[in-house]
Structures
1.
Amino acid sequence: MPPLDIDIGVLFSTTGSYGTVAQSMLNGALLAVEEVNRSELGLRITPSIHNPGGDLANYAMHAEALLRGGIRHVVGCYTSSARKEVIPLFEKHDGLLWYPSHYEGFESSNNVIYTGAAPNQHMLPLVEYLLQHHGRRAFCVGSNYIWAWENNRILRESVSSRGGTVLAERYFAVGETDFSQVVEAIIAARPSFVFLTLIGTSAYAFFRAFRVACRAAGIDQAREMPVASCSLSEPELEAIGGDAVDGHLSSSVYFTSIESAENARFLQAYGEAFPEGPTASADAEASYNAVWLLARSIAAAGSDDPRMVKGRLVEQHCHAPQGDVWIDSETFHAFLTPRIGRSNHEARFDLVGEARAPVRPDPYLINNSGRFEAAPFPVLRLVS
């Protein structure tokens, strides 16, 4: 029997201020496409690749072109602003957006499959770790859009309920690189930690400026005022570079340092397919998982009809590089394994905390209160 031909869209801004991470996401998706086409699933996937260039105004145009062209499934978007921009089009055309990025939660669209981490899988574990190991005084710095606003709200409520305080919140335009004033304010305030929701080139510039200023003030920044993030990944550590790369905390469900046969196989295949990089990231792995889950669901359904695909999707389990991944039938978010990493001089992460099993997604934090009193909050075991 000839393979079933399927066209999918791939929508990532591989140029622009967050192009480094988006390129790793494109790489992850294309690696999965190549593997699916060589597999025994009986599919031949052809990706239609679109690059909005980091310009929010371009996302709707590209999504509209894909959907009007007959494509029913699109793997794409990094920022929440981009996702929000295109969701109405997927609802209008009854397509499915496979969204492979960690995000702030408080959303569940019938036309989105969420393969990245929900807030109970990245925000809450990070807050708990910071309060236990670094203190209760937070200073928040973020890019001026929904990702930063919502994550800072979750952090503020969680920290305040535990007797801590958020000293300040500062927001900057995406792409901003001058942080001299806020760095001075942080050093003057001396928080226990900085919670960073800047993205792309803005984040890289902040890390460098903050480390330089702390060193000039005689402060061991990594030890005394660590920077913590829910989005910092390996290709971004490489972009930060130099003497500012180590000692940062990141909450994620995937790090390249995970020791497993499946991750070793993934990293070898990724490196061979994309020798020029960028390095694999959590979002690259989520993109890779999205394509595989989509492909298996189409194969099981015998069609790319979105309703049939969703019906078979909840039956699929993916032995992913991070561990077992599957989709929750109520929210269509993924079961994922929370982890905490600390960056080192090699631009990689050493694991310092890890959940013992995949955690059910809770995008609205219904089962996980900001007071950390409601089970099943994902308790992390310390990793030596």
2.
Amino acid sequence: MDLTASAGVVALAGSLLVPSSAGASPGAGEAPVRSIQWSACPKAEPPFPAPSKRTRCGTLEVPVDWAKPDGPTMKIAVARQKATDPKKRIGVLLSNPGGPGSTGLDDAYFADDPVEGYRDSIRSRFDIIGFDPRGIGRSGQLRCDDKLAAKIPHRPKNAAEFQRMRTLNQRLAESCRAGSGAVVDHMDSVSVARDMDAIRAALGEKKINFLGHSYGTLIGSQYARLFPQKLRALALDSAMDPSRPDAGRFLTDGSAAAEGGVQQLADWCAKDASCALKGKDVKALVRGLFARADAGRLFEPGRHGPTRKKVTADQLSGFLTDYLRKWNPQTTAEQLSALNSGRGKVYWTDDTPDLAWRTVMCRDYDFRLRDWDHYRELRRQAASAAPHARYNSQALDMILGCQGWPAAPEPEPARATGTLPPVLVVNAKHDLATPLPGARRMAQEFPKGRLAVLDAVGHWLYRQCESPLPARAIDTYLRTLKTPPPGTVFPSA
């Protein structure tokens, strides 16, 4: 799950309304099976590299609203790199990079890239299929009032600010609907899963293989719920919690993971001589920084000493969440040392959710809070789970972004009948974006679900991981459907 700041026009990827097939949940209408006309891919705008010459692109027309198959339609952008060894070809491999709100065409655009692409053992056996989810990238544009978005309180400090946040969130959603149309209310993961089956039908495939990363794992689990008989393989990397936790459990699990990140940093500093906090009690230092921030006595560091710019406790929580999530312990320790001494430089990041994030997340999870008192209780629960990190800033951003959002969460679809294949879930033990408890629940969703854990801090283990072991396990599974033994724990690199 990845969060990025957004401006007024947000490109959204992948809006497909797919034909309902056997096993689809009640209420989903039948849409005609349409084909994809393949041609050369559009040229990328600098500084982005051009798609591989082996990649072909097209669009698929789908209903905006799955419940109204004869209603308005939209086009989903799809890209394909064919298997390099047709004699060994197994089938098609679809993927989703998460976000939510991230474009997915790149997976096919650069499938043969030696760094960002797939290994030869996968490219030889699968057609790599990338697509932009509905409302994202080349599958539509989300147009919202960015000036209004900038006025929304980021961390409400009282009941009046909490209500103002709700009111402005509602007005923001209305601006998105006015600028983008009905798709704003149909960007949930269930709709995207139906889009995926429309792609399957358009490709003429009986079954698909799917590799989901981060929020893409929720889309994969929804596809398994709707179309179990259409899946050959389902690999889920850094898994979301499929049980749709409420705001309290979502923030508590995330905050406990952030607390674990602080402990991991302390453990690393105790062992690594390069740590800028070597010899110090890291957890005590972090407690001290929060105490100074609470008292209004923590300031940004400068070349010759503290500046006059105050650092709030919320800023400090955001800093810890972001830097521990990306796991660069050396840089994190250096910047904590600078904050503590008042000398040096701290590089703040802005990881507030973008608008596409809200249009998806607020339809998939029910994060609605009763009132200001409910919010304060939520913060108290988080602080109890994370006495050193206070809370997981990314998780809290998601929750607050849904307050006042007018589109109610989409009901969970009925589970279709059908036999699922073995399912592989991989997750880092200390993942701040998709905490391990949620990954455990994801593996338990499936009769033959298997969880393999990397003993490290990290997120997105298939490519963005120092250890090659999770990716090897996924590749082996995709080729053979063989999962690692129960209880597998991969050592860190």
3.
Amino acid sequence: MIDIRQYDYDLPEERIAKFPLAERSASKLLVYRAGEITERHFADLGDVLPVGQLVVFNNTRVIRARIIMHKPTGARVEVFCLEPHDPADYERAFAVRGACEWSCIVGNLKKWKEGDVQIEFRVGERDEKLRARIVRRGGREQTVRFEWTAPMTFGELLEHLGRIPIPPYLNRESEEIDNTRYQTVYSRFEGSVAAPTAGLHFTSELIEGMRLRGFAFEEVTLHVGAGTFLPVKEQDATRHAMHTEHFEVRRRTVGALLSKWGAITAVGTTSVRTLESLTALAWRIRTTGSPDAERAVGQWELYDIPSAFTGREALEVLLGYMEREGLDALKASTQIMITPEGYEFRIVTNIVTNFHQPASTLLLLVSAYAGDDWRRIYDYALGHDFRFLSYGDSSVLMR
């Protein structure tokens, strides 16, 4: 049992950063190194991390997933696109024209019991409509079919009509600044409904400066789902059902990880979860001959892998498989839950991460890495005017 109440703390509303700083890398940086806590600025990250580290980013891009639509009666309905249903592949879902289906969260669902909702918009000289209807009702999520006649892909449609889905705890509507600042400077592949926020502090200049000093950089892709905001409602956190998130890793990245094993810095909990999930895929290859990538890495799957199967060995197995199969990239999904009860980090050496919500799965991940020192870290941040959550300050954790 993991009593989630042991991972709670008092977070005053005024400590939640509602807007980003004017300069990304001007945020404060808490440095946790072998139990010692100090304070720098994020622009100093290259001075803090050991030179030669492989820094791993999550290059996912946040989509404008919130669409405000209306019933013929005028009732307002908000449709929040979570992940594609038909086509189910992200790349095809954004490229499709005319119609598609998505799993969505619907605001004002009680006002949308039947029929279509729509939004009217203009493209060039023509008036166009986007219509939507629920084709399969569920509990929290509904399957929504979108249809449109405009000569646009669904990705272009979202870019034209949608709004950036900033976190609900900001208690405000998205604004123009969020369109750029709720994206990392290295975001490339659309699919997330929440930003990998640890990366928001990086600038192109900081990355290039670190590269010139001997740091290496690689990217993975994990599309962040709305489940990242789900609170742990069970007192026993092990009963919390983790959401599924899709990820992709390239063969060249696996090779770079292997060559730098023992010196890998993951930027953000999404990068951590992606990298650590590779061990499970490798263990499947070792034991069955296949990564069985269609099946998500289970919530507790990594806890059952023998300690003797090291991260280095996992990367060797995975790289060998990809070379034999001629795979340039491997797509999979994960439900991994990293907790302080028995989790063993096998790939990740250091973690760059923001300050997370009380009693959350992300705070459990921090505790799995830093042990009971998580509370010292958060007490320091609260006592030294650090800003919290998505637009807040950062930390680098080094054991």
4.
Amino acid sequence: MNTTFLRRTLTAAAATGAAAVMILTAAAGASAHVGVTPDKTGANSYALLTFGIPHGCGDSGTTRVAITLPAELNDAQPTVNPNWTVEKVTEQLAEPRKLADGTSITKRTSQIVYTARTPLDHELRDALVLSVKLPDAAGSTLYFPTLQTCETGQTDWSEIATDGQDAHSLKAPAPSVTVTAAAGTDGHGAATETAAHTTAQAAATDSGADVRSWAGLAAGLGGLALGGAALARSGSRRREATAK
């Protein structure tokens, strides 16, 4: 029996299994944050913002999600979700704010509050969608502090990285959207916004789909490791038969 060959194969299988566990652990950690995925990021455009709601209080189910709108936004239209009731919270402005059409407003929507009809189980996730008009401020980042309340406890996703701080070091980062240049009237402008849209979707790490993708990869690696071990056993049996 070629013990060296078998030892190498089993070592490789163990390493592959360990790598699969690390991949799944990292993906699960990323998915634990409340995040937002925009379908558009172009300045002055209407965008759909999808907030991914995972578990945020350990094993306790989520009962309420309060999304605070940045001061740059005047309003947001919630998309109907049968699992939640929703209400808008308004605030009085210190002074009237003039809109692009020449009219003025004295109040703005400051918060969108979702209340679960039944608590969202910690092993499940949901998506809450808001329609907003992005400001005409390319390059700016909009933050949406979100308070996730559970049957027991709560998590305040409101941390914002300071200058020079690594955003990945934050324990409870606020969901954010960076506004890009507006789409132009020619093909180049439209292509720019389309590219930004594609990049934003690809960069989303807490949609749940990325975890499923990583899980599929890990399962494939695990299968490869098991196949290698089986091949090693088969090779050993053939050598033993030949020796006899």
